[in-house]
Amino acid sequence: AQKVTQAQTEISVVEKEDVTLDCVYETRDTTYYLFWYKQPPSGELVFLIRRNSFDEQNEISGRYSWNFQKSTSSFNFTITASQVVDSAVYFCALTRDYGQNFVFGPGTRLSVLP
Amino acid sequence: GAVVSQHPSWVICKSGTSVKIECRSLDFQATTMFWYRQFPKQSLMLMATSNEGSKATYEQGVEKDKFLINHASLTLSTLTVTSAHPEDSSFYICSASPDRFKLFFGSGTQLSVL
Predict the structure, then answer these.
(1) What DSSP state is assigned to residue B32?
(2) Cβ of B101 under 8 Å from any chain A Cβ?
(3) Does the beta-carbon distance from B105 to A98 stay under 8 Å?
(4) What Rg do the C-alpha atoms of chain B give, in angstroms?
(5) How far is A33 from chain B (nearest CA, A)?
(6) pLDDT tens for residues A38-66?
(7) Distance in angstroms (rounded) separating the CA atoms of residues A52 and B103
(8) How far apart are CA A16 and CA A97, in angstroms?
(9) What is the pLDDT along chain B (114 residues), one digit of tens a residue?
C-alpha cells in the first residue's frame, strides 16, 4: 500500500524566513512519482514539482527547492525567503503511474506573516 | 496546454436535492478520470475512478448509489451527488491524464448542502 505522511500540520513563519515542509512516503513500487502541490484558499491545486523514483537530483526553482532522498523515503520542500503569498496548504502526493490515482499526504498549512 | 475544466466552481443546494458536477478534458481524451473529495482542513481522498464506457470503480466506504459517476465520452465525466445532505458538503476535484507524463486537476467544486 502507498502512504504519504506530512508530519507538520501547520507552520507559521515570519516573512523572509526559510521554511522546510517535510514529506515521507511509503511504497512497494520500484517506479513511482512524487509531487508537491500548493492549494491556496481558492481551492485549486497548483502543480509545483514532479520527481520520478529514478531521479534523485535535488532541484531548485527560484525560491523553491526540493530534496529527494530514496534512502529515507523523503521528499522535502524548502521555501527560501518566504513571502506572504506563499501562505497556502501544501500537499505531497505519490502515484505509481500517471494513469493511476494519487495518494495525498494530509497537507501542511503554511502561514507566512508579514 | 492541456486543461481539465470542472463546473460548477461552487454550488449551494437544499438537503435532498441532487447536484451534478462536470469534469471535462478540453483538448485531450481521457479514458480514465479520478474524483477526489476534500473535507475542510483535510487532505484529498480518492472517491472513485471513472472509466469511459464502463462502470466506475469506487473506493471503500464510498456509496456508489449516492455518488453516481458517468463517463459517457472520452472528454467528460460527471459526478452526481444524489439526495445530498449536509454531511456531503465538501470540496470535490477531478483529475485526468492525457498521457503517461502529464496529469491535470480540475479547479474543484465547493458543495454546500443546507
Answers:
(1) E
(2) yes
(3) no
(4) 13
(5) 10
(6) 999 888 888 899 898 988 888 888 999 99
(7) 14
(8) 36
(9) 558 999 999 999 999 999 999 999 998 998 889 999 999 888 999 999 998 888 999 999 999 999 999 998 999 999 999 999 999 999 999 998 887 667 789 999 999 999
Do residues A79 and A63 lie in contact, with contact meaning Cβ atoms separated by under 8 Å?
yes
Nearest to A101 among B46, B93, B100 (CB): B46
Residues of chain B in contact with residue A51, where contact means CB-CB under 8 angstroms, are: none
Q: What does DSSP say about strands B90-99 and B109-113: parallel, antiparallel, or unpaired?
A: antiparallel
CA dist list (Å): B36 to A52, A59, A82, B8, B9: 23, 29, 30, 15, 15
Q: What is the 3-state secondary structure (H, E, C) of chain A?
A: CCEEECCCCEEEEECCCCEEECCEEECCCCCCEEEEEEECCCCCCEEEEEEECCCCCCEEECCEEEEEEHHHCEEEEEECCCCHHHCEEEEEEEECCCCCCCEECCCEEEEEEC
- The answer, for A106 touching chain B at a CB cutoff of 8 Å, is yes
How large is the C-alpha radius of gyration of chain A?
14
Question: Within an 8 Å CB–CB cutoff, is residue A98 touching chain B?
Answer: yes
Does A109 sit within 8 Å of B44, measured CB to CB? Answer: no
The residue of chain A with its CA nearest to that of B44 is A104
List phi, psi (to 5°) of A71: -60, -30
Considering only the beta carbons, identify the residue of B43, B100, B107 that sits closest to A104: B43
Cα A110 from Cα A80, distance rounded (Å)? 13
